[in-house]
Structures are given as C-alpha cells and as structure tokens.
C-alpha cells in the first residue's frame, strides 16, 4: 500500500504562533487521517520539520501491521525536501536537531519514504490544518 502524506508548517510573524498540518491519504486519494497541532512560538522552517516528525510518529504506529509499503511525503518547503533528500546540508542550529530526529525515526522504523516538493497551491489542505491549529489555540487563550 502506498500512503501519500501532505505536510505543512505555518508560523505567523516568523517566529510566531505556529501550527502543523498533516493530511494522510491512500494511493487513490482517499483521506485516512487529518492531523493538526499547535506548536507554540517557533519559525516556519521549524514548524515544517515538526509537522514531518508528527506525521512520522503517527505513521510509525500504522506500520505495525505491515500494511504500508511506501510513504510519499509532499511539502511546499523546498528547504525541508532538499535537506531530507540530501541535496542541501542542514546549517541551522535550530533545524539540525529536528532533522536528526526525523532521520532517526526513518532509520529506526525502517520506513521507505520519498520527499517531493509541491507548490502551495497543491498543499492547501495541510496548510488549512496548520492554520486551524493556530486559530483554535489562540481562540482558547482569548476565552
């Protein structure tokens, strides 16, 4: 089974209130899960990586049954995609621990993953979820 995972991190004011959004679907386009999480105050690039880590941890639980053969990640962050594909080195001291955590999960769980850059236009659902996480957290604070 092929799993398509659309990830996005949003940060308002960069750094600012941030959220992660993840849309997980099967190879036919049927949604399996929608995940969102408020991340506190962080940068956009950190939020992108945190969205990836949230998705990897969620998928690690799904792979216990052995049903997933390939995971295709899609992100509108060229930086994340190129770093995960080994095309760019990781220079930021804030990003490096997140990158290493993602790589560790991939190695330990033996997940077969690919990373593909897509334009924002094709990542609207994950972006919507990331912003919804921020909106919900801020709404709770104002109560």
TrEMBL record:
Cross-referenced InterPro entries: RNaseH-like_sf, RNaseH_domain, RNaseH_sf
Listed SUPFAM superfamilies: Ribonuclease H-like (SSF53098)
Gene Ontology molecular function terms on file: nucleic acid binding; RNA-DNA hybrid ribonuclease activity
Pfam families: RVT_3 (PF13456)
Record domain RNase H type-1: where: 1-135
Record PANTHER family: POLYNUCLEOTIDYL TRANSFERASE, RIBONUCLEASE H-LIKE SUPERFAMILY PROTEIN, RIBONUCLEASE HI
Protein known as: Ribonuclease HI family protein
Source organism of this protein record: Candidatus Acidulodesulfobacterium ferriphilum
Lineage of producing organism: Bacteria, Deltaproteobacteria, Candidatus Acidulodesulfobacterales, Candidatus Acidulodesulfobacterium
């Amino acid at each position: 089974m092929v799993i398509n995972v659309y990830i996005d991190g949003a940060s308002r004011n960069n750094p600012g209130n941030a959220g992660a959004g993840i849309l997980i679907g099967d190879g036919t386009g049927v949604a399996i899960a929608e995940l969102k999480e408020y991340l506190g105050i962080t940068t956009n690039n950190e939020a992108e990586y945190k969205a990836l880590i949230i998705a990897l941890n969620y998928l690690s639980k799904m792979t216990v049954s052995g049903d997933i053969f390939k995971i295709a990640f899609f992100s509108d962050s060229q930086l994340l995609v190129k770093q995960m594909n080994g095309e760019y080195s990781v220079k930021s001291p804030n990003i490096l621990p997140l990158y290493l955590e993602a790589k560790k999960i991939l190695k330990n769980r033996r997940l077969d993953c690919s990373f593909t850059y897509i334009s924002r236009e094709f990542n609207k659902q994950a972006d919507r979820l990331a912003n919804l996480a921020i909106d919900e957290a801020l709404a709770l604070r104002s109560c």
